Amino acid sequence: MNERQAAKWPAEADLRTEHGQEEAIRRVLEDFYSSGKPPWDTETTPPELVALIEGEGSLPPGRALDLGCGTGTNATYLARHGWEVVAVDLIDDAARQARRKAEAARVDVRVLCGDVTRLDELDVPGSYDLFFDLSCYCGIPAHRRDAYAAGLTRRAAPGARLLMFGYGPEAFDDGISGVTADELRTRFDGWELTEITPGTNPVPTFWFTLRRPTEPA
Fold first, then answer.
1. I need a labelling partner for 27 at 20 to 30 A (CA). Which of 51, 92, 181, 216 fits?
2. SS3 72
3. CB-based contact 116:68 (threshold 8 Å)
4. Rounded distance between C-alpha atoms, residue 207 and residue 200, angstroms
5. Residue 68: what are its φ and ψ, rounded to 5°?
């Protein structure tokens, strides 16, 4: 999500019920894909992910789950660097483009169309060493966020990382979008929020790194 997406977010009348919130979000995302290239799809892997995969102290390749994968730019990047990747997106068109992108790159990415807050309804068995979320969680309605966190926790290998980019609540006027560090500390029980880096966008954005312990508490 970015500032252009925030401007198109559903009217308040669409957000009065939990079901309405979920359907409004789906409609907005579908509209972006049907009208052309989504504004958040830069076709460039963010340097924060590149640093984690290729930089000093980089993670060794393992299993990665890309949440809200869009057209698959980052899932394909991870696969190119030796990761076993599963990618999930809510929108059919996004998933189709992600599959085509992986095929064109001649890498193996398992792309699923589904809801990242309902991973138990998809064929997404654990465990994963890395979870990547590029502004997916911050657009999920509050009533589904605990399920998102629980789904990741059940699938997290010891020492697993979650790298998440999110917009602050100030970026939106819909009353449901945005994410804060305090919320992540509360919702992701058993995880440690190890790093918070402000983004470079005109509105408040952040990169969050969370980590599971390497041994049971």
1. 181
2. coil
3. yes
4. 10
5. 70, 55
Beta-sheet pairing, 192-198 with 156-167: unpaired
Long-range CB contacts (< 8 A, 24+ apart) of 123-128? Answer: 124/65, 124/86, 124/88, 124/155, 125/155, 126/154, 126/155, 126/156, 126/157, 127/63, 127/155, 127/156, 127/157, 127/160, 128/62, 128/63, 128/64, 128/65, 128/86, 128/155, 128/156, 128/157, 128/160
* For range 53-80, the mean pLDDT: 97
* Per-residue pLDDT reduced to its tens digit, 81-123: 999 999 999 999 999 999 999 999 999 999 999 999 999 999 9
Cα-flanking dihedrals φ and ψ of residue 90, to 5°? -75, -25
- Which residues touch 8 (CB under 8 Å, ≥6 apart)? 28, 31, 32
Does the pTM exceed 0.90? yes
pLDDT in tens, 9-29: 455 546 778 988 899 889 989
Give the SS3 label for residue 106: coil
Helices (H), the chain: 3-7, 18-34, 47-54, 73-80, 92-105, 142-154, 181-187
Cα gap 137→23, rounded to integer Å:
16
Q: What is the pLDDT of residue 103?
A: 98
Contacts of 126 (CB under 8 A, 6+ apart): 154, 155, 156, 157
